[in-house]
Amino acid sequence: MTGAPTQAELDAARLVLDRMGVTAEDLLNSVKPPAPTFAEYIPVVATAVGDGTRRAYSPYWNRVLEQWADISLSDRTPTDIQRLVQHIKANLTVRRNTRNGNSAAEHLIAALRCLYRHAVNDELIDERSNPAAKVPKPRRQPSNRRALSGKQMDQLNDVVSTTGNDPQLDSLIIRFHTETAARRGGALALRPRDLDEEQCMVHLREKGETSRWQPVSPTLMWHLLQHVEQRGAPMNGRLFRYADGRPITYHRYDNLWSRVGENLAWAGKQGVSTHWLRYTTLTWVERHFGYAVARAYAGHNDTNTDAGSTTTYVRATLEEIATALAALTAAAARSWKTKSGASSKEPARWSVPLCQFHSATRSGCSGSGRRELSSM
If DSSP codes are grouped into helix, strand and coil, which group holds residue 132? Predict the structure, then answer.
């Protein structure tokens, strides 16, 4: 078309727009500026998500920046993302628990979906133009993790309490995870203000911004309080700290399990990690107290499970969780006595058989915990 439109052509255009319910202003407002580049937008999203999400996705956003820093979000296609997935898998750092790069591929796609979801919400791209939503995640393989045997737990605790530059810290970490079945992030987020000494409970804040109160033994509570006092943890700061007062990070866990793998061949070959302790505790609870108690012990509150909606009506109480904990710690103490023939001083990890812990959660635990620990 050349030259200015005729009056007839303008009238025809107005008629078509009127029938479509579109105004000239709509057409002008529909012109969007180009979408930002990955280098421009990733920092924006990183400040908008929670700490857990940022920590999980940052390594993958960094890999995206290595390849696409100066490329606009609107210039990537599903095929481009699939090529990046294959590049990541081909250049993967092999770790103890590496499984053909499927986990890395899943996390990369999830990180890009998070990025593009924010871009759609910010109206930087159209929802139909979201390439990450069109790339399927790889099928998640069944986990190789399982519950550790009593013998393996004994070996694990022996290595943790006799090696490394801070056995006291590492033993406390292992005891904490064994009793609470908490995830690693829950321990790292724990603060002194999250300890309820009177009721013998800790407030766990874990993935998905979930939180819950979890019963602990008087023994563990006493050691946590001693740790806070001796290492100078501020009330609102991280609880677990090095001897010099610095808060621990994920690196402490990496070094801990690397050392365990070096000393226990089976742990190194199978890639045992903190999550195996969660499997161990929850398996024991499920076998002795049933699925409902194990589910509550784990802090699971999602409704999209194979168990169906029945879990809404059979939800375990905090008292039932405390009863399971009492039996768990009492069984561990009895097991140690039977194997070692000990009759007096027990190791710190299972020093108090908590046969009466169920009532202690109501009446307070600080006194009994301190008295029994003082005799160690």
Answer: helix
Q: Does residue 305 surpass a pLDDT of 90?
A: no
Closest CA to 326 of 220, 212, 174, 206: 220
The C-alpha atoms of residue 289 and residue 326 are separated, in whole angstroms, by: 12
Q: For residue 26, what are the CA distances in angstroms to 7, 23, 114, 212?
A: 21, 5, 29, 49
Domain 38-134, CATH number (from 2.20.130, 1.10.1740, 1.10.3470, 1.10.150) = 1.10.150
46 vs 56: CA distance, rounded Å: 11
Q: What is the residue extent of each domain of the chain?
A: 38-134, 150-297+314-374
Q: What is the tens place of the pLDDT at every residue in 145-165? A: 899 999 999 999 999 999 999
Structural contact between residues 202 and 216, judged by C-beta atoms closer than 8 angstroms: yes
Strand partners, 212: 204
Residue with tokens 């169906």, as numbered in its chain = 308
Separation of CA 75 from chain center = 33
* 0.85 surpassed by pTM: no
What is the SS3 assignment for 249?
Answer: coil
Q: What is the pLDDT of residues 196-247, one digit of tens each?
A: 999 999 999 987 778 999 999 999 999 999 999 999 999 999 999 999 999 9
Sign of the four-CA dihedral 297, 137, 208, 234: positive
Spatial separation of the C-alpha atoms in residues 79 and 134, rounded to whole Å: 9
What mean pLDDT is predicted for residues 347-360? 34
Give 205's strand partners.
211
Asked if 118 contacts 111 with a C-beta cutoff of 8 angstroms, the reply is no
> Closest by alpha carbon to 347, among 158, 180, 164?
158
CATH number of 150-297+314-374: 1.10.443.10
